[in-house]
Specification:
346 residues; alpha+beta; 14-stranded antiparallel sheet; 8 helices
Length: 346
Amino acid sequence: MPRTGPPRHAPRVPAYAARFPEGTEEFVFVQYACQAPSAEEAAQGAATLAGHFTGPHQPDVLDRGSFVDTAGLHNVVWLAYWYDPQVYSKWEESASVRSAWSGLPDLGPVGHWREVCVIPLERNEILHSHHCDDYATSGVCQHEAVEMHETPVHDYWGAARDRIPASATEALEPELPVFVPSAPGEGETRGRRITVEVPGNVTLIRTAQDWSASTLYREKYLADVRPVKDRGVDFLATNPDSGCIAARNLVEESADGAPLDRACTLAWFASLEHLMTWCRSHRTHLEIYASFYRMAGGAEGPLDVAFWHEVSVLPSGSVTAEYVNCHPRTGFLPLPDSHRRVSGSV
């Protein structure tokens, strides 16, 4: 597809794209979570999973966060990255991990879910407002093997698509062009293990904000930008006609659950075009965009709040989504019945 950047485009602020080591073709990103009525129960459930992210095949990067979903339940999520899918496979197939997942309770108030993505680099783009040497943050670029280089391919509508290598030759058309959520009842998802067949070319974004090292723009970000961002995520989480299947507004945490001065949003869209349409034309994102540039254009000095995102368009078969004893609005469970495979009680 043709590139969309305007001629002689000059971005208003610098940005940095990720560069993986030569020979890397794909990496793995996993969300493992506990879902419960209270923050304490969710944290306890997440703590039982923590020990499994250690050992010889442990993830290269491990983040943690929590959020309250649209049903009012608390979710604590481990966000894990493996640079070698074979190492991830050894981890996932180990006796301890397999027994831990198969042994999760199917009754009671607590649920668990996991969403696993094998991400081809040609279908991924990563952009940071700061170089990792200047502002360490969360996400896949924490790893020393990933380098960053300044890129002019940003600060215009369609830049995200242009940064995805596969978009130059592929239309990236969705297998699910219109997302109309089904309405499964609690009895159809509680007490059950459900695997969802995820349609091809769904799009995942993890977009993050880090004010942990900020002194100049901290208060302006928290007062003027963060509330606007939160309203945008709330809109996506409650308006499936946007093409957003699920949106999660996480407060990032340390490994033991202490809140950090970081946040991130994880959102699944039916397609890249659904994500880009929301970004370039919906009021909620235009307000986010405007609030950011009002802050970034301030006279206080160099911007010291860091922003970054990872966007991936996942081909068919590259996403595994499983839910144990979860409520029916969790993750991909709202997809039509034909996508769900129920194995009964765990």
